[in-house]
Amino acid sequence: MDWMKILAAVALLMMLFVSWRGFKWWSANSPKAEKGDWNSALLALAAVAAFVALLIMMVR
Known about the structure:
Elements: H1 3-28, H2 37-59
């Protein structure tokens, strides 16, 4: 294993550590979901899925 792979592994571990701390803070301080939030999220996901399906059909 050369030094570039070791350096990349160390950098990855450092990024995961910083991301984990941020995730813990966001999950502790996040707002609670209200009644219409899940419907809005599902609508956005369905729109993206439909757009991807349209792009796939256009390529074929």
